[in-house]
Amino acid sequence: MTPRAGRIRETIDRELPSLLDLYRRLHAQPELSGEEETTSRTLAAELERAGFAVSEGIGGHGIVGVRSSGAGPVVMIRADMDALPVAEETGLPYASRIVAKRPDGSTVSVMHACGHDIHMSVLAGTARVLADLVDEWEGTLLLVGQPAEETGRGATAMIDDGIFTRFPVPDSALALHVGPDLPKGIVGFREGIFSAGSESLDIVIRGIGGHAAHPDRAIDPVVLAARIILAFQTIVSRELPPLGFGVVTVASIHGGAKYNAIPDTVSLQANIRYFSEQVREKIMESIRRITRNIALSAGVPEDLLPEVKIAAESVPPLVNDTVLTGRVSSILRDTLGEERVIRIDPLTGSEDFGFFGMLEPRVPLCYFRIGTGGGPYLHNSRFAPDPGPAISLGVFCMALAALELLGKK
Ligand SMILES: [Zn+2]
Ligand SMILES: [Zn+2]
User: Fold this and answer.
1) Would you state the CATH architecture of domain 3-195+318-408?
2) Which residues lie below 8 Å from residue 281, measured CB to CB, with a gap of 6+?
3) Among 96, 215, 280, 335, fewest CB within 10 Å belongs to which?
4) Which ligand has the nearest atom to the CA of 175?
């Protein structure tokens, strides 16, 4: 281990018990996307304690902590803060018992089922290590707590609220995610496409409602919906090039309210995944063509043809900068060893961190995964990674990467 890695390790060993404490507090107090009020305040206090000047309320509950040490590169590290509407079943002593109220008055259990509590603890730990080692680096650190990752809105909300105009524009931006599918202690990198673009669609299929006993006097949108959903199944298998990755899923279908009444409309919620813009355009074109023409073939009049609308949850593919990712992965490989830093396949999941790298001039991104070694997958009610090793590995990677990218004193 290099002397620098040794110093990082020392600080982590010293801080880990209190970081675990923070982790358990965050885990027990999860908040839904866009409602991260307590969470962001907790994280802001952590960054302030580590000597960062913190601004709150950016793009909702987003926070930005800034600490400069002379002139030099600007490095951004981002952690997401939101939890999910999942009822926790881990049986942990610090399991969430939080029930949130939705805008419509209904209630929902909330859980940190995607590990964002670990990501925040890593951010706090990284702040402490880099504050400790402030004599070794030159430049500016931007530590970002991002709201609403799970709805795909938080990153754009922070950008729209001026994160890159009110604060220094980063020369590089880093983020990580825990991965139960990677062995414990393993770091997964990939240059280029890291995770898929995701587009969510609201599709309204209209017919002409009527009596179940007289389908001849109606145009049944339930049957239309069934035909449309089946026709979607050949978009990927018959229309995309075999090597062009794409997914089309219809995840929700609603229509009708009674056994003997044919409804006027059926609503579908669909989701597509893609790595390339060409594939996205092809899938969208196919969806529009299929819905329209199946409706026409059933005699639906022009003014009642299906509507395909893109929902707000959509995010583009996350693309890692090749040079930055090479730099970060090679410093980690040199320190942790070849076998612990691996190249992984792109994910068909999605992530809104990619938005931070889409503006001009482009901010190079490096997003990577740290293995938590088995157990239930992300978003599962029993998702319970071992927090100690994950936080300590996450802080080690982030601190080492930041020191590599910042200027040296
Ligand atoms: Zn998630
Ligand atoms: Zn997540």
Assistant:
1) 3-Layer(aba) Sandwich (3.40)
2) none
3) 215
4) 2
